[in-house]
Amino acid sequence: MNANQILDASGIAKSFGAVKALVDASLSVSEGEIVALMGANGAGKSTFVKIITGALTPDNGKVLIRGKQARVGSPAEARRSGLVPVYQEPSLIPDLDVADNLRLTDTPIAPFERWVKELGIEGLSLSDMVGDLPLATLRILDLARALASEPDVLLLDEMTAALPSDLVERVLKVTRQQADKGMGVIYVSHRFNEISELCDRATVLRDGQTVGDLVIEPGVEDRAVELMLGQRLDLAAREVNKTRGTIGDTPRVRVKGVAIAPKVTDISFDMFPGEVLGVVALEGQGQDELFECLAGFMPPTAGSIEVNGTTTAFRHPADAIAAGVKFVPGDRADALLAQRSVRENIALPFSARMSSWGWLKMRHERERVEHAIDRLQIDTRAQGEVQRLSGGNQQKVTIGRWLATGVETLLLFDPTRGIDVRTKRQIYPLVRELAEQGSSVLFYTSELEEIPLACDRAVVIFNGRVVDIIDAENADEQTLLRAAYGLTAQEGAA
Amino acid sequence: MNMATTDSSMVRFGRFLRDNPVIPLLAFLVLMIAVLEVIRPGIVTPFRAGRDGLISTFWVGNLIKFAIPLAMLAACQVLTMLTAGIDLSAGIVATVAAFVCATLSSIWGPVPAVLIAMSMGLVVGVVNGIGVGVVRVHPLIMTLGTGLIATGCMQVYQRLVINAGSEIPAVLSWLGTGRTLSMPNGLFLFVPFALFVFWLMRFTGFGRLLFALGSNENAAKLSGVRAWQVYVALYALSGLIAALAGLLYLGMIRQTSLSLASPLLLPSVAAAVIGGTSIFGGRGSFAGAIVGALIIRVLDTMLTLMQMPEGARTMLFGLIILTVTAIYVRITGSR
């Protein structure tokens, strides 16, 4: 377009097997410009970022750098053409000291040290082991390293996610300064307030396509949310029968002021018997840690969790299970014995306690397992090895495990991720049914449209704290997405 | 999305063999015996050498007799390998048990001697289990370490009892050297033992957990399994089995030494691996390990008969084990 344009990616497409991650994505940055890249979960942001920085090669489309077709085949090539990323996960090697890490990328030492100071980190020594440094420092070091190589375009992926507010301000200030000196910046973020403070434009991605290019001005949030959602009219999905049991009066689980360092700062809510409580959060807002904490994998650093009126101190998932709290994790591979049978996978909790190490009660086990298989309609044609089942059926096995033992409180972390529509529609009614029978379900999903389908209420978590608790039944996606972006408080003003 | 129906026949054959590892192994065992018969006609079938009998029950009995202690130590490896572990202290534990039993039975009589010998195995096993399950030391390092410590302790102990002399309890001699209907009496111990291991692996909650821990420890944890409990029980059991194997071996050899059963350690690992147990955990069978132990014994006999020098024998032994395992892994697509 204009003579100052540094990077121009257009028509980018990328598929992983049958999944189309990107269909037609485009983005451009000019000298001195800060462009935000936005999109709801699963819109294709991370794939796009990986393609721009050479970590993935696109199936289609082209990337022009200063008007010339660039072959960005690897991160090193991207770096040489002046494109330097700072990823969400620190990319420093923990077992080396800072100086060795710099040597790996040929980073000049003097400018690096200058940037570290400028960004507000005091008392860093180059001989410090990277593994001993706190996460916030690592992110700053990553940024300082990127700046020291004097990039033409700097790509910041959720740069401020793990930073305390004073460091956030420093980062924003330095980024602005560098842009004023001519550097281009691509700023991937979930945070509207930072975007409106820092950025000039925003490129919005939805379902793998660039759907809009917005100039940042007051009130742009509404337009961005609209674009991110689009007109998704999946009316069939809305026909899920929402049977309602009576929701109990005394909470089954009370989460009070829970903090889990470093990501979760303040989470409180109650879960009642007969209720499905949704969790609305963008990726990485602390929901992973919250679920793991409730499931007994790690204790909270502050606050308390009460189950049935007694304060708990779970030190192992076995403690949580004994208290009736059962967890279905987001990654099925974490929960399954891939090479073992469906039956063994479902029956696994039966043998967990030492008192049940003896003779297997085969008949009892078969009855329970078959009941779970029937209820979930698990396709057992390939039941000899769970790894031969489809993703949807594998997910049913991980849920079926807890149905077979009986559920008081069920923690479902993104149970519909990556599974087919048919299975999804079997999972919502199942969740409703469990609630109707008196279970309490905590339901996190990365797909917002599932919240009104399956949940009674929803807690909104942003940046490690509960920002709102809303009535899920009547919440439309727009409200939910605004809430997830932490925009609720500004709603009246907008 | 049932992939089983689209698999090629080769894959299905591999899967069948993986689910029934004993079948190709038995075929291989028979093949090895046939080769042996070719090398030395008449050793297995006396009638061909002009003597009586279709099959030499004496030879078969001997084969079984010497395979038993090996198969028992292989049980230690199979059980620990199910959880992606290994027990390298098994050989030394067997030696210690034999040594302690022989020296103590001349002082206190056979029953306390046997009990103390077994408890030695239990102690080493519990320490292994705590190291692996609680402190989370890698099983290879942990059992290697306790094995060395046990060796050292045995050397100290030897100096203390140097004048006590040694005595082999009569029941062990009977088990080790006696025969009933040409078959070794060791089978009276081994058959119930093998049934026990089979039962443990197939029909108990504990057995399920061994497979579960080896397949995906995180999934087991998620299901409420406290892994350290399983590890302590597992390595304690392995120690007990190793001690029992040592006692039987003592009755068979009727001599004590500071390295009595130690040479059996690596063959016991080999027997387990040949028998289809994955060192990466989650898959294994004791029946396979028993056939593996028999194969190793036949191999040993064969190399001895060929009158090779010791060095060449050892080299060939290692080579054959590697080849067998490689072929086996190829067919079954397992690791």
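Chain A touches chain B at residues 295, 316-318, 321-322, 327, 329, 333-340, 344-345, 347-354, 356-360, 362, 379, 381-382, 384, 388-390, 393, 401 (CB under 8 Å).
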